[in-house]
Design a protein that fits this description.
mainly alpha, elongated, about 300 residues, about 60% helix
């Protein structure tokens, strides 16, 4: 290995470590800030224990200065004022030395916490902008596909739907179902794992489709009333576990999206909806038409 290769290797390693440090800098700054706040309290408490001694010495010196005015004829009121100024300056210096470390550590701790917050805020803004750009590109691409081949073909390509033959009411029908692993990241299966699911022996085949229709209508009313709905709000209503992305994506009224909440069940023949509505399927995949990150649309 020549010197140039060695230099490049060292530079690469240093650069990588710097990137890792930059990645974890908010966490490091936050922990340092919290520790600094604790240290500030400890230092301030220690300083307070010594304040009485400084103040008592100050009061004694003030008393001696006041007594000297009447006892010593050469000691004028002007001298008294001068000595008091000097005394107060010295006392202030002593108090500053006592509380100085706690003040410095406290200011540095606040700066660390503020810096961590600003870094995370800038990163969130950048991530939101990146997501918005990707989402905009995807919507435009979907629209071009829909214009060229029609909305049904666009839906088929988007979800990777394939034909599957089922038996419904004694008749064989061909419906569209998603290929394995081709659902969106927001899709969730509504089945016995949901806390709102009702088993078939308790009337679930009739109740579950009605429940989904009711919740979809309720979420649309909720959207019109509040102006926005988070995906986690829908998950909660359906008895499904929350997700990290569900805390930031959802629907915003009047933002240029669909302006309605759709579970992807009652339109068309995708996701074995016909079987489910007819009570012939043990569960149903729900795929939601979220508008995107709500904070970027308000």
């Amino acid at each position: 290995m020549n010197l140039k290769s060695l230099a490049n290797l060292v530079t690469s390693k240093v650069g990588r470590q710097g990137l890792i440090l930059q990645k974890h800098s908010p966490k490091i700054m936050f922990v340092a800030g919290v520790i600094g706040v604790g240290a500030t309290v400890v230092l301030a408490c220690r300083a307070t224990l010594k304040v009485d001694e400084v103040l008592q010495e100050h009061e004694k010196t003030v008393g001696r200065i006041e007594e000297a005015v009447g006892l010593v004829s050469e000691y004028t009121d002007k001298d008294r004022q001068k000595d008091l100024v000097v005394l107060y300056a010295k006392t202030f210096g002593k108090l500053t030395r006592l509380y100085g470390p706690s003040v410095v550590v406290g200011v540095a701790s606040i700066a660390m916490l503020t810096g961590a917050h600003l870094i995370l805020t800038r990163r969130n803004v950048a991530l939101t902008a990146a997501y918005a750009a990707i989402e905009k590109g995807l919507r435009e691409y979907r629209q071009r596909v829909s214009d060229e081949f029609g909305p049904d073909k666009e839906r088929e390509l988007r979800y990777g739907l394939i034909d599957e033959e089922i038996e419904l009411d004694g008749k064989k029908q061909v419906v569209k179902v998603p290929a394995r692993g081709e659902k969106s990241i927001y899709a969730r299966c509504f089945d016995e794992l949901s806390t709102s699911w009702v088993p078939e022996d308790q009337g679930g085949s009739l109740y579950n489709p009605i429940f989904l229709r009711t919740q979809q209508a309720y979420m649309n009313d909720f959207l019109r009333a509040r102006g926005h709905v988070l995906l986690n709000d829908v998950y909660d209503a359906l008895g499904l576990p929350r997700t990290k992305e569900g805390a930031v994506v959802g629907w915003v009224l009047g933002c240029g999206g669909d302006d309605y909440v759709d579970f992807g069940v009652f339109e068309g023949d995708q996701f074995t909806a016909l079987q489910f509505v007819a009570g012939q399927a043990p569960g149903i995949w729900l795929d939601f038409n979220v508008d995107g990150v709500v904070y970027d649309k308000i």
